[in-house]
Write a structure and sequence with these properties.
7 helices, 12 strands
């Protein structure tokens, strides 16, 4: 009888301890989306003129307006924090909207926050050479033309298989926007790039990093979002679910001499949780590899 009581006490403590740990983990995963980190990285890239060393690109992705923690006030605060980085350019890498019913096509136009509201609250973004936007899958599931119109109204440049060039220190820098990979499953920018006078100093931006395997060698770097870093990242195991190739989950990927950086984004999709993948603003400083 005494042995039974001892076993019961030990078992009860284990169960209670497990419940407490579980509750703490659940609470943390719900609270982590309220965090925001500034991730600073320096990347040496090919086809980049040395006179442009130190060029600063601030990237955000996957805002998902109206999702857990993403209020109008928070979007404005994120805008202020981006501006505080004194960027040369700002790139926004898609998935601005969030559907009320995730992945239910018949409800695709029901948004948690109107795109007009999202664009208005981002309109304060400022950089030396412009704010550049690509469309994500949630955006074109909703209405890509509507998204484009609202961002152009506030002065941003939307690029879908298009380029925009500007001069920095007597060198031409080009931003190439590549349409979301899920739309057609191919990257088709050859004709766009051939029209450029130079194949140097090209910054590619897209939503889905799976475009990377098909992007031209001439790009100095490709910046992408979409994955949310898996949104949950367990110790030793990593992210169990990633909506792209695992190798493109997050961070700097160098492959066959080419460079990709995948940001884990700002908002949430599906479950309103993040675990060991806090929302981030990425500040990327580009230097010449040569």
């Amino acid at each position: 009888m005494e042995l039974f009581k001892k076993i019961f006490r030990i078992t009860s403590r284990i169960v209670l301890g497990g419940m407490i740990i579980g509750l703490l983990l659940f609470t943390y995963t719900y609270l982590e989306p309220y965090r925001l980190v500034i991730k600073e990285v320096t990347i040496n890239v090919p086809n980049w003129n040395r006179e442009l060393n130190g060029f600063k690109v601030v990237a955000i992705s996957d805002i998902h307006g109206g999702s857990h923690t993403i209020t109008e006030e928070r979007i404005r605060k994120i805008t202020e924090q981006i501006n505080a980085q004194n960027p040369d350019i700002i790139v926004m890498l898609g998935d601005f909207v969030s559907q009320v019913h995730d992945n239910v096509p018949i409800k695709k136009r029901d948004l948690k926050m109107p795109i007009e509201t999202i664009a208005k609250n981002l309109s304060g973004l400022k950089s030396k050479y412009g704010v550049f936007v690509v469309i994500g899958n949630h955006d074109w599931w909703f209405d890509d033309q509507k998204c484009r119109t609202e961002f152009e109204k506030v002065g941003f440049t939307v690029l879908e298989n298009e380029t925009k060039s500007f001069v920095v220190n007597n060198n031409t820098v080009t931003v190439l926007g590549i349409e979301d990979f899920w739309r057609r499953g191919v990257v088709d920018v050859k004709d766009v790039l051939e029209k450029l006078p130079s194949q140097e100093n090209i910054i590619g931006i897209t939503h889905n990093p799976e475009s990377f395997d098909q992007t031209p060698q001439s790009l100095s770097i490709l910046l992408a979002g979409h994955t949310h870093g898996g949104q949950v990242n367990f110790p030793f195991i990593g992210a169990p679910i990633v909506p792209a190739k695992k190798e493109f989950t997050a961070g700097h990927i160098e492959k066959e001499g080419r460079n990709l950086f995948v940001t884990t984004g700002i908002g949430t999709s599906g479950l309103p949780f993040r675990f060991r993948v806090p929302p981030e603003i990425v500040v990327t400083t580009l230097n010449s590899k040569e």
